[in-house]
Amino acid sequence: MALSLKRRADRPAPDAMTLTEHLGELRRRVMVSVAAFFVAGTVAALLYPWILSFLKHPYCEIAPTHCGFYVTGPLDGLALRVKIAAYGGIFLASPIWLWELWRFITPGLNPKEKRYAVPFIVATIGLFSLGAAVAFLIFPHALQWLNNIGGPSLTQILDPNKYLSLIILLMVCFGVTFEFPVLLVALELAGVVTPEQLSSQRRWAIVGIVVLAGVITPSSDPFSMCAMAIPLYIFYELSIIVGKIVRR
Asked: What are the start-end ranges of the H helices in 63-110?
């Protein structure tokens, strides 16, 4: 028995789609993203020992002989595996749900907006990844400082759930704050601010960056604050240069 395959009809123009068609397309893309998340989460759960060993590496750098974790409840191990599966699912499925988001948005953009959208998306993903990598690299120094600040009379016994929450939160905070130049360039393109205005407010920007780094750094250690504040100021200066180039 032969099966006939029917070609999918061409996608209608965004301005010709009804509200029901928009909602239907959104639902389809959300379902694809959710399915990708569950598949990636399952893979992360299977790779749980390797992922936990990778995330534990900063702790083992400062305590190579006793970098084990300790749990105080029978459900703590299960909660840790579920957290790693959830975080890993979001990370591993990110190419798919970002692609679905991009395919849902781009039909409504004109050619000029699409030309700007591609470098903005690439810069957003690259800067977020850079921020997360910086947070992971400086995390051993943050742990060492937090361990020493309590004094030699304290013995450090780490809960893996709290450790995981801290390192993930630190990586997310760094990743989000490293989007700072993308925001500034977008404001310059929109005409909200000009490179000249940013240059004239440089002193206030330095103060604001230092205060921001001190407030939003989860570990509150000087290494993390400096690792966040210094790149943010460099990004501030680069956004002024990029803004002038783009205007020309």
From this structure: 76-92, 94-105
> What type of residue sits at position 170?
L
CA distance 109 to 105: 7
The DSSP call for residue 12 is P
Confidence (pTM): 0.81
Identify each DSSP E strand in the chain by its residue range: none
What's the CA angle centered on 21, arms 15 and 23, to 5 degrees? 110
pLDDT along the chain (248 residues), means of 10: 45 62 83 93 93 89 81 86 92 88 75 76 89 91 83 78 90 91 86 87 90 84 88 91 81
191 Rama sector, left if φ>0, alpha if ψ -120 to 50, beta otherwise: left
207-231 burial: b if 16+ Cβ within 10 Å, else e: eebbebbeeebbbebebbbebbbeb
